[in-house]
Amino acid sequence: MKKTITDYSLVLLFVGLFFFTFQFINSSISALAGSQVTTQQKISEPTIMVPGTNGDADRFDELIQKLKETDPDTAVMKVTVKTDGTLAVSGSLNQATKHPIVVIAFQDASDGQPAVAKQAKWYQQALTYVHESYAFSNYNVVAHSNGGLVLTDYLENDRLPEDPQLDHLITLGTPFNDVGDYNHGNQLKAISPWLNSYLKNANKLPTEQLSVLNIAGDQNATQSDGTVELASVKAGAKLYQNSASYTELEVDASHSDLLTNPVAAQAIETIFH
Asked: In the chain, which ranges are E strands?
């Protein structure tokens, strides 16, 4: 009889130890997960840069070097969204940087309205990744060429309530009215189907808190940057002129040189620094 009681006690002891060990491991895992959330690094308001057609994550390197002249230790992170939905990430951000920079690029940076609509969804995916990795509530954007259309498409169709708030949007050479026969120099000949699709959803743009600087290239007084005519760039006013602030700036530069034009770079630096 004593042997039976002893065996039964041992069983209870082992069962108790098992549950105690399980609860301890489970609590440790929960604590670790909780610590990962609470240690999410808070950063200053970042600037996201979005290239245009065929642009990659290195497209803004010269502009970034220019901006680094006033803040040499600026942290830079580059995110490329691949066609399979995975992200290629290099660099990281830190709390010490006053003006952190994130470049969001796309493996497929094709031209055309369907391609830009897809890139807008990829932009949202990359923005979510950055936002989950670092704590910030507001951010700014510098977008070149079709990158400005990607942002417009995102703001109208893919922006989520939990996304951080866009404060400043700077577009450079963005063909808001497409290219070609829709434009003539400084005058619109017709509203392109592409712009018309954005006008239909313009009420979704967060214009009440948004400051917009729309930069156009007027190379050698030709009313074009060699790729996009002034009329197409200035058509951005039809979407953003009712923003909290809307400004247009013309510089003597070709389409590809807009990112290295000293006047444009100074305007960008003034807003973000």
From this structure: 41-42, 47-50, 76-81, 87-91, 101-106, 134-135, 138-144, 165-172, 183-184, 187-188, 211-217, 245-251
Q: How confident is the model at residue 40 (pLDDT cuts 50, 70, 90)?
A: confident
Name the nearest CA neighbour of 106 among 158, 51, 143, 170: 51
pTM for this entry: 0.85
Ranges assigned E (strand) in 185-236: 187-188, 211-217
**Listed residue (183, 264, 195) closest to 236, CA to CA:** 195
Contact at 8 Å (CB) between 243 and 211? yes
H/E stretch holding 118: helix 113-133
CB 99 within 8 A of CB 74: yes
Cα separations in angstroms, 250 against 131, 174, 189? 33, 12, 20
The DSSP element (H or E) to which 197 belongs, if any, is: helix 193-200
Report the mean per-residue pLDDT for the chain: 88
Residues 203, 80: Cα–Cα separation, whole Å = 30
DSSP string over 3-44: HHHHHHHHHHHHHHHHHHHHHHHHHHHHHHHHHHHHTPEE--
Q: What are phi and psi of 144, to 5 degrees?
A: -105, 135
What is the tens place of the pLDDT at every residue in 55-96? 999 999 999 999 998 888 899 999 999 999 999 999 999 999
User: What is the number of helices (H) and of strands (E) in the chain?
Assistant: 8, 12
Instruction: For the chain, report the end-to-end CA distance as a whole number of angstroms.
Output: 84
Q: How far apart are CA 208 and CA 171, in angstroms?
A: 18
d(CA 150, CA 154): 6
Cβ atoms within 10 A of the Cβ of 223, count? Answer: 18
